[in-house]
Design a protein that fits this description.
Shape: globular
Strand content: 5-15%
Largest sheet: 5 strands, mixed
Structural class: alpha+beta
Order of helices and strands: HHHHHHEHEHEEEHHHHHHHHEHHEHHHH
């Protein structure tokens, strides 16, 4: 595992550090740097997120996430306000009592370490459900024994999550992504004071093979229902050297008592949600229930953080632009806090950055020829189903044109160590082609170098032609040209070639007449063949 440096709010001001530096690189991929970006955004969320929960925000999220009819949930979830307030009030009363008893309570909470892992880190290293269950059993036994010896009666070591329950969670919450299941193996500790809870946390750091990956301090930001604990994900190294991610929770005794008392309110909310959402299948109803409960069991800060992380996409510059936009809003309206609606519009400053960047690359005096070459380069990237190898782009564009353009656009489209042309962030494509990645035909759209639908169609034709060439089906007959008449003939041409491909696939293994289809004696050739086989028909359809 990559070592992680823990940072507390009292040790440094993350936002201040970022404000003093202008980032040189747009994107970072190293795990520790990605964690820094997430930690920076977490502090933004804590500073500017509206902590007041609104049911209509959840309703809009459900309608968007599950493609429900717009306003179909309008006001329906407010029926659950009563049990929510009863739950929240009980937890708040318990926490207030803790503050009265312990004058250092707030200080200890703020000093608790912050640790934010990326989504990619918080995945099991296998997608085999049976392996994850087996690993969980070993972790539960070995780590459970250690925690009992360290924490004594404060340790709560349940059985691993039952198979049926685990699989249902994969289906309903994680939509079939087995690797996202992180609580097959789970542990808890029950402590009388926050000071003892902190000591328990420190004891975890000394356990061999255990690495704390992610920390949610719900005492700092209780969830929507009011509940608070320290919730952690940790990796544990097994005897065979494999690694399994488990869940560890640290509780205050007084909060656990309240949790049992208010469980009736939680159950009311959980069982009522499916009844309020009409005209969906039982499977989707369960997924909606999981999504809504997941939102209620998160703090408003964590929910806001998830959106900010998605918008920034690991790009330091984007994180900084988000901060600058929030600071501007706060300057106009002191005390400003963003809500769900505000979050949906926070990317506008990023689009302005792209616009300014492209104006510097292609100033007004740029020749039409160079603009067209740049437009072709960008349209090919936007149309490609996967990142293209630089050698592929060179082949499609021609060596001379490719060399002229690639350096100019490397800021937005860098080439990685594997030779693939990448994008700094998915919003670059949205900016170039229109919202949602759809090419625009709006002639009034004056954004620099906008990629039109005609340019996208032409790019798909060129990619289709290239795929045909890669799999060896253009040696004896030339591909129709990419003009209007050629585009009409292209589909017919491609489908004839697809028939030929099928015939070749059904032949017995051995020498074939057209070696181009199977010739893959280098890694690059294998990559080209894979792309061509997967996406040839897609480019043909989009280019026709």
């Amino acid at each position: 595992m990559i070592p992680v440096v823990q940072i507390t709010l009292s040790q440094c001001n993350i936002i201040e550090l970022f404000s003093q530096n202008k980032p040189v690189e747009l994107r970072v991929d190293a795990t520790d740097q990605q964690n820094d970006v997430k930690l920076f955004l977490y502090n933004l969320a804590r500073k500017y997120a509206d902590r007041h929960f609104q049911w209509n925000d959840l309703e809009q999220s459900l309608e968007t996430e599950f493609n429900l009819e717009k306003n179909s949930l309008d006001g329906k979830l407010k029926e659950l306000q009563g049990p929510l307030m009863l739950s929240k009030g009980a937890y708040e009363a318990a926490i207030q009592k803790e503050k009265i008893v312990d004058s250092n309570f707030d200080k200890l909470i703020k000093e608790f370490p912050i640790l934010k892992a990326t989504k990619d880190e918080l995945k099991q290293l296998t997608t085999d459900f049976e392996v994850i269950l087996k690993q969980g059993e070993e972790v539960q036994k070995r780590l459970g024994d250690e925690l009992r010896s360290i924490w004594g009666d404060s340790a709560i070591i349940p059985q691993i999550k039952e198979r049926a329950e685990a699989w249902q969670k994969i289906v309903d919450k994680y939509l079939g992504k087995v690797e996202l299941l992180r609580d097959v193996s789970r542990f808890s500790g029950d402590f009388g004071t926050f000071a003892k809870l902190r000591e328990a946390y420190e004891s975890l750091l000394a356990i061999k093979g255990l690495t704390i990956m992610n920390i949610k301090n719900k005492f700092l930001d209780p969830d929507v229902l009011g509940y608070a604990d320290i919730n952690m994900n940790a990796s544990y190294t097994l005897q065979d050297g494999s690694v399994h991610i488990c869940e560890i929770q640290l509780h205050l005794s007084s909060i656990r008592i309240v949790k049992e008392e208010v469980h009736v309110h939680y159950e009311t909310i959980r069982t009522t949600i499916p009844r309020l959402v009409k005209n969906v299948t039982p499977e989707v109803s369960k997924q909606i229930q999981q999504f809504a409960i997941g939102r209620l069991r998160c703090s408003q800060v964590e929910t806001a953080l998830a959106t900010l992380v998605e918008k920034a996409g690991g790009v330091f510059l984007h994180a900084r632009l988000l901060m600058e936009q929030m600071e501007e809003m706060d300057a106009k309206s002191p005390g400003w806090k963003f809500d769900f609606s505000d979050l949906q519009h926070l990317s506008s400053s990023v689009y302005s950055h792209y616009d300014e960047t492209l104006k510097r690359i292609f100033p007004l005096k740029t020749s039409a020829t160079l603009r067209n070459k740049g437009g072709l380069f960008m349209s090919l990237i936007c149309a490609a189903e996967e990142p293209l190898l630089s050698t592929s782009m060179e082949k499609i564009m021609g060596e001379e044109d490719f060399e002229i353009v690639k350096g100019k656009l490397s800021l937005l489209f860098p080439t990685d160590s594997g030779g693939y042309i990448t994008i700094t962030h998915k919003s670059v494509v949205d900016f170039l082609t229109g919202f949602g990645g759809e090419a625009s035909n709006n002639k009034s759209d004056k954004r620099t170098c906008l990629i039109s639908s005609d340019m996208m169609k032409s790019a798909n034709v060129k990619l289709c032609q290239y795929c045909l060439e890669v799999v060896g089906l253009t040696k004896s007959e030339s591909v129709p040209p990419a003009n209007t008449e050629g585009q009409k003939r292209l589909n017919s041409f491609v489908w004839k070639r697809i028939a030929k491909l099928c015939q070749l696939c059904f032949k017995a293994v051995g020498p074939v007449e057209n070696e181009g289809v199977f010739s893959a004696n280098t890694e690059e050739r294998k990559t080209l063949n894979t792309y061509a086989w997967k996406h040839l028909v897609i480019h043909a359809c989009k280019g026709g």
